[in-house]
Amino acid sequence: MLEGGRDGGGGRVKSLRAVGRGYIYIYIYRALAILSFLSPLPRRIPPTHPPTHSQHTHTHTSIHPPIHPSTRTMADSIPSEMRALTVPFHASPDRLQVSTLPVPSILLPTDVLIRVHAASINPIDVKKAAGMTRMLETIRFPFVLGQDVSGVIVRIGTEAGDFQVGDEVYTPLRKGGSFAVPLPSVMMALVMVHMRGLMLSDYFFLRFPAAAADYVVTSSKHLCRKPVTISHSLAAALPTVATTALQALTRAAARQPLGDLTGKTVFIPGALSGTGHIALQLAKRVFNAGHVITTASPGKIPRIAELLGEGTVDQIIDYTSQDVHEKIEKGSVDFVFDTMGGAQGYFSLVKPETGVVISLATVPSGEQAAAVFPETPWAIKIVLNLIDAWYQWRARRWGVGMYEFFFPNTETYAKDLEKVAWWVGEGKLRPVIGRTARLEDLEGVIAGCTEVKSGKGGTGKFVIELV
């Protein structure tokens, strides 16, 4: 809330100006995106009929981005083309294919080019590919899956900080990373694209997350050095789930009377889910929660101590035969981290006034959706606000101190990953991989992505290995 008086008025003016700038950026982004589609970039035309498994062929293009003179590169040559896991149109995982695309170019001084060794797939990746977010954003085809990578820097811009060619790094790639910088920098980058003889569509294509590919370009501002004690595959399993879990736990801790979760009761369903298995370890070993509760199927219960470590979880509920409302005392939980859906059903479990429920599996408010997906139509925002209002009303009815849908803050990725790397090195955090596949093993990749999309039966993360 803005305070009254002179400061409050100034705050309102600043707020209006910020909103105005935001709308200007959005409309410029949309205009440039339209221009990018009109530019004559050779691209794969989706077939009239969806291809069968026998038609998973490679897509070739003639674009060879030139090397920018103000970059430093590894001695061995970087090819002009690369492999990438793509869908040619909105489709389920069985339509995935390995395509040949141009290796992305460094466009901004802070950019780095990474040779990807491993990439992990998150539910949002396959949902985007299937078109489940088509009403919120426009994506280019062929669409490259993935946003979590671990690899080696092979080329850097002139302002890449203390990163050097040859550094092993891991990161969650940010959507539209170049549009997170001030507008003058964006326009400067577009001028660079024009001067180098590329098309606007090259710029937009290269700035979207595309982890499951031999090479990716991202900003050095969001990078972190890979934990030295684990492989690239294990490191690739961490970025999105670890930063999300860390931020959610930090937010919940801040809402507690003493500002932390020490000795508190925490309930995180989905013991061996992608985010759940990381959140459980952080809750116990980093945030010092006193009583950690989770759920699992009978087949996974014996593996929890083995995979997460003895003493990480204090109470395991078999969700197939037991009711959490009978196993958890009403009004006894300080924090519920809903990673599986069903947040409304947990409101009665939390402590009145101070209990916190954070969900990754319900729906965001209209404003939250618009912040992440600027193209969200106003009608969708209204619907989302109505649904969120219903959740908020239910939460207040049960006396919940705070309920919210949660999107992680991408601005703190680098700092968060530094903490994660430290905890991995200390043995406080163990990433769990349930399935891996080589990029060239298309059947294995399809099986892994299908499992991720279904949200059932998987353990930990699914990782695609490229080196």
Structure write-up:
- The protein has two domains: 39-238 and 432-465, Quinone Oxidoreductase, Chain A, domain 1, CATH 3.90.180; 240-410, Rossmann fold (3-Layer(aba) Sandwich).
- 34% of the residues lie in helices and 18% in strands.
- It has helices at 5-38, 123-129, 183-195, 200-206, 232-236, 239-254, 276-285, 301-308, 324-327, 366-372, 378-397, 413-426, 442-454; strands at 72-73, 81-87, 97-102, 111-121, 143-144, 148-156, 168-172, 215-219, 224-225, 265-267, 291-296, 315-318, 335-338, 356-359, 402-405, 433-438, 461-465.
- Strands 1, 4, 6, 7, 8, 9, 16 and 17 form an eight-stranded mixed β-sheet that branches. A six-stranded parallel β-sheet has the order 12-11-10-13-14-15, sandwiched between helices. Strands 3-2-5 form a three-stranded antiparallel β-sheet, with no helix packed on it.
- Residues 1-19, 32-70, 176-186 and 192-207 have low confidence and may be disordered.
Summarize the SSE layout with pairings.
Blueprint: H1 5-38, E1 72-73, E2 81-87, E3 97-102, E4 111-121, H2 123-129, E5 143-144, E6 148-156, E7 168-172, H3 183-195, H4 200-206, E8 215-219, E9 224-225, H5 232-236, H6 239-254, E10 265-267, H7 276-285, E11 291-296, H8 301-308, E12 315-318, H9 324-327, E13 335-338, E14 356-359, H10 366-372, H11 378-397, E15 402-405, H12 413-426, E16 433-438, H13 442-454, E17 461-465
Parallel strand pairs: 10-11, 10-13, 11-12, 13-14, 14-15, 16-17
Antiparallel strand pairs: 1-6, 2-3, 2-5, 4-6, 4-8, 4-17, 6-7, 7-9
